[in-house]
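Key result, reporting period 2: structure in, sequence out.
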């Protein structure tokens, strides 16, 4: 693939520069393309032509620097969150058979579990119980690990990426992985969080375009 990332710019009118960039970062992460990922980040930095030494808080250069730093932080957070959201497709759970009855070690009424469960329900809506039952049938510790570690500690943390941004990068990553049932659930989750239909279509189109050229 060429290192020319100009094709991403055609999605700016619908998604905006920042969201389109984060979608691309998510796709390159999910498809394990570190060179393309670093190339994209370097291009973003060079294109901004920012004076990183600017210190006057009211100057245009300083504001541009802050915007760039925020985008790079969001890109890093995208990579970090993807580590936890794309590691175990549900197809793997469905195709695995357990021989012995697993033992659960976590407690459902812990504050972490409740926080994570609330975030899980906000994402998956009315199919939440069905999904948790499927995970539980594979191993109950998987449920608690996902709820407490992923949804409570990681995904519900909106200090850098908002809930909506986290769902957008998850949709992009899952689109790369060819797990249609998960993709369907997270697209619905994105809609529940207020992402417009036109934006979702653009996210999926950009993700598929990246998938087809890498």
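The corresponding designed sequence is given below.
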């Amino acid at each position: 693939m060429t290192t020319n990332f100009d094709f991403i710019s055609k999605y700016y009118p619908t998604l905006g520069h920042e969201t389109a960039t984060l979608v691309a970062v998510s796709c390159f992460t999910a498809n394990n393309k570190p060179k393309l990922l670093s190339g994209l980040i370097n291009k973003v930095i060079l294109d901004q032509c920012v004076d990183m030494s600017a210190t006057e808080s009211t100057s245009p250069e300083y504001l541009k620097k802050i915007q760039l730093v925020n985008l790079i932080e969001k890109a890093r957070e995208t990579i970090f969150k993807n580590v936890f959201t794309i590691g175990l497709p549900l197809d793997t759970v469905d195709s695995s058979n357990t021989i012995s009855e697993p033992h659960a070690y976590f407690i459902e009424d812990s504050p972490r579990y409740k926080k994570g469960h609330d975030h899980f329900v906000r994402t998956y809506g009315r199919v939440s119980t069905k999904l948790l039952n499927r995970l539980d049938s594979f191993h109950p510790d998987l449920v608690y690990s996902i709820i407490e570690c992923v949804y409570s500690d990681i995904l519900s943390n909106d200090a850098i990426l908002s809930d909506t941004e986290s769902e957008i990068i998850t949709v992009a990553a899952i689109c790369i992985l060819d797990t249609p049932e998960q993709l369907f659930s997270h697209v619905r989750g994105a809609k529940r969080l207020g992402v417009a239909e036109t934006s979702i279509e653009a996210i999926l189109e950009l993700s598929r375009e990246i998938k087809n050229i890498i």
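Residues 92-105 have pLDDT under 50 and may be disordered. DSSP finds eleven helices and no strands in the chain. This case is discussed further under Risks and Mitigation.
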